[in-house]
User: Which sequence fits this backbone?
C-alpha cells in the first residue's frame, strides 16, 4: 500500500468545525483523512466518518502518536484508544508525530513498538513526521526502510526541504507535505498568481499540483466547502517544466513550524 497523493488535513480543527470539514470532504470525494492524537479531534473525525456512510475499505485514515506515548508500554495502548475514538479496528497509517524531546525515548524503542502495532494489524503502514536525515537513518536502522511509508514534513514553495526529500526518495520513503500552502502565504505570491491566471486555476491548486508533481503527498485542510471542492481539482492540473522551475526558485528556507520543545536540529 502506498500513501495516496491527496488527502484532507484536520490540524487545528475542533468540535463541530472538524465534523463539518470531514463530512463535506467525504461528500465531495475525499477518501484520505489525516488526524493526530494531539489534535484532540479523533473522536469527531470518527463521528464524521461514521455518519458519512462511506465504506471503511474506501478510506485511508492516518493518525499520529504523540510524544507522551512513545514508550514501548504506552504506544500500542494509546493507538488502541485512537482506534476507539475513530470507530475503526485499524488505521491505514500511523506516524510518530515528532522526534522524542531530548531523545528521551530512543528511536529504536518507539519504532519497534510501532512495527509491533503493524504486526498486530492495528495499522497497515507506519511512518514518521518531522524527522531529519539523522533521525530517518536511526528509524531505518531500527525497522528497515521498507517499513517506513512516509516522512510527513513542513514543505511548501518557501521551504522546499530538498535534502530531506532526496534522502527519503533514495530509500523509497514517500514525503508527505504539510502546510503546503504555507498557511496561505504562498497564495499571494506573484509568481504563483501568474501561473494560476495563465492556467485558469487558483493559486492553491497550482501549489498543490506542484507538490504532487514532485511526487509528494499533500493534505490541505479547509473549513469552507467551496475551498475543499476547489483544492480537489489540483489532482487534474499539470504544470510545465518552466512553471515547476519558477516555483523551485521561490525556496528561501522559510520555516513556519519549529516549536522549541519539539524541534530537532533541522537539516
Assistant:
Amino acid at each position: 500500500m502506498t500513501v495516496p497523493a491527496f488527502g484532507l488535513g484536520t490540524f487545528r480543527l475542533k468540535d463541530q468545525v472538524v465534523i463539518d470539514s470531514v463530512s463535506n470532504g467525504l461528500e465531495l470525494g475525499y477518501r484520505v483523512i489525516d488526524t493526530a492524537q494531539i489534535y484532540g479531534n479523533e473522536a469527531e473525525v470518527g463521528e464524521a466518518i461514521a455518519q458519512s456512510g462511506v465504506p471503511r475499505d474506501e478510506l485511508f485514515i492516518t493518525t499520529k502518536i504523540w510524544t507522551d506515548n512513545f514508550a514501548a508500554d504506552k504506544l500500542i495502548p494509546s493507538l488502541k484508544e485512537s482506534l476507539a475514538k475513530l470507530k475503526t479496528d485499524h488505521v491505514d497509517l500511523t506516524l510518530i508525530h515528532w522526534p522524542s524531546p531530548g531523545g528521551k525515548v530512543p528511536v529504536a524503542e518507539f519504532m519497534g513498538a510501532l512495527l509491533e502495532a503493524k504486526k498486530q494489524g492495528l495499522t497497515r503502514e507506519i511512518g514518521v513526521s518531522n524527522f531529519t536525515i539523522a533521525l530517518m537513518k536511526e528509524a531505518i536502522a531500527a525497522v528497515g526502510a521498507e517499513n517506513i511509508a512516509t516522512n510527513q514534513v513542513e514543505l511548501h514553495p518557501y521551504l522546499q526541504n530538498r535534502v530531506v526529500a532526496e534522502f527519503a526518495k533514495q530509500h523509497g520513503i514517500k514525503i508527505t507535505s504539510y502546510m503546503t500552502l504555507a498557511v496561505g502565504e504562498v497564495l499571494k505570491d506573484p509568481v504563483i498568481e501568474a501561473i494560476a491566471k495563465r492556467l485558469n486555476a487558483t493559486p492553491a491548486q497550482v501549489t498543490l499540483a506542484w507538490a504532487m508533481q514532485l511526487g509528494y503527498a499533500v493534505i490541505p485542510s479547509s473549513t469552507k466547502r467551496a475551498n475543499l471542492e476547489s483544492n480537489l481539482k489540483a489532482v487534474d492540473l499539470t504544470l510545465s517544466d518552466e512553471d515547476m522551475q519558477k516555483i523551485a526558485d521561490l525556496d528561501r528556507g522559510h520555516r513556519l513550524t519549529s516549536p522549541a520543545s519539539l524541534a530537532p536540529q533541522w537539516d
Summary: Residues 214 and 244 are 9 Å apart (CA to CA).
